[in-house]
């Protein structure tokens, strides 16, 4: 399918569904047009110093957030920072490792944000996993970010179609079944629970979510019921490899942990310059003392609806890796996928040179935001092996999926994760759904302009399909190293 160009002036970032949603979005866009007519300037780059913490945002920062969400997509990185070149010129920094002499190997699948949208039901999502489930859930360890409390004692509290105020989420059992593969797959092994919605249902919501996950025998990290539990983060041993999981969030929205109960959520000012990293350093050191050979950190930070992380986020992510020796960062919160970085560091505990892999954002996963970029989640599978006594990432496989909704009268009748690479080669699949076809063209522009120019394209895996269109092999890299 030929790739169209989308100048900033033509890039409407959202696609509302209902008449009410279209009215509200149209009203907001009209107000921004009036602002522009009265001399308001466009933001061509991310706002300098924007930290996206609702408790600290001034009016101008709130205006910027609404601008990039509803009115006009930001297509550049921080002004003068050179982030475009930084992310597009580092493709040779990761090399596959020979594991033929290693018997200690595991696979880890990572997905992005799991959120309580109105259409995440077992009925509407019954075909969700047809093209993605085998790739994602077929791993020794499956992990993701549970970006909502789950208090079974309360009704679901959903993400509104148009987000114009503070939102307080709560998922339910049916949604969790959707997140976990609808009983067709193994489900999750570890879920991060530290994010900006951790306290949406108060202290009881934190406790009920932990108890729910305990009942499901799913390990969790980032929220806790006590100070001791805070440091009892998961360390999982599989096939002779010990992996520790840590989790932190930059914000709790407009909320704070009660006095003396900071343990409820690992909350740090990660979106601001020079954050206090003492908690991460303490827990990383504790993980090593407990025998962890590989550290995974879920870092809920960054700014939403931007193709690149800001320079502050890049600086902070790099500093976290250098000071803690974290091997793999799984970033969340931007809601759209962002590029990958491979950082050479000196491990602060062993003193050896090694590489940290930073995933700035995998985007929304099981969710359905009206912002178009959120409909292209990035799923990753890491091969991890012990080679000469060191545990390292030996290979990376990636897939992008189009979160495709079949709509009727403003309602989502069916939600499916369709393989991006297959759709790019077979555009006729969407031939009877012209709005979706246009949306996918814009997503293809986004992917190829921002995600695939650097190193991500080297890890995309292809699928071989039989004459009936069935996937046969999704583990061969498109771009051989």
Supply the key terms.
single chain; 481 residues; alpha/beta; 11 helices; 15 strands; disordered C terminus
What does this structure look like?
There is one protein chain. This protein is an alpha/beta fold and 481 residues long. It has 2 domains: 8-71, no CATH class; 90-400, 4-Layer Sandwich (Purple Acid Phosphatase, chain A, domain 2). Helix content is 25%, strand content 23%. The protein contains 11 helices and 15 strands. The protein has helices spanning 19-37, 59-71, 83-88, 133-137, 173-179, 202-215, 227-230, 278-289, 311-324, 420-425, 434-451, and strands at 105-114, 141-146, 190-192, 219-221, 235-238, 241-249, 294-300, 328-332, 340-346, 353-359, 378-387, 390-408, 411-419, 461-465, 471-477. Strands 4-3-2-1-11-12-13 form a 7-stranded mixed beta sheet. Strands 5-6-7-8-10-9 form a 6-stranded mixed beta sheet, covered by helices on one side. Strand 11 and strand 12 form a beta hairpin. Helix 1 crosses helix 2. The longest helix has 19 residues, at 19-37. It is globular. The protein starts with 18 loop residues before the first helix and ends with a strand. The relative contact order is 0.15. Mean pLDDT is 92; it is low at 465-469 and 472-481.
Integer average pLDDT? 92
Major sheet attributes: 7 strands, mixed
Oligomer: single chain
How large is the radius of gyration?
21 Å
The count of helical stretches stands at: 11
β-strand percent reads 15-25%
Shape: globular
Structural class by secondary-structure content: alpha/beta
SSE topology string = HHHEHEHEHEHEEHEHEEEEEEHHEE
Number of domains: 2
CATH architecture descriptor of the largest domain: 4-Layer Sandwich
CATH class of the largest domain: Alpha Beta
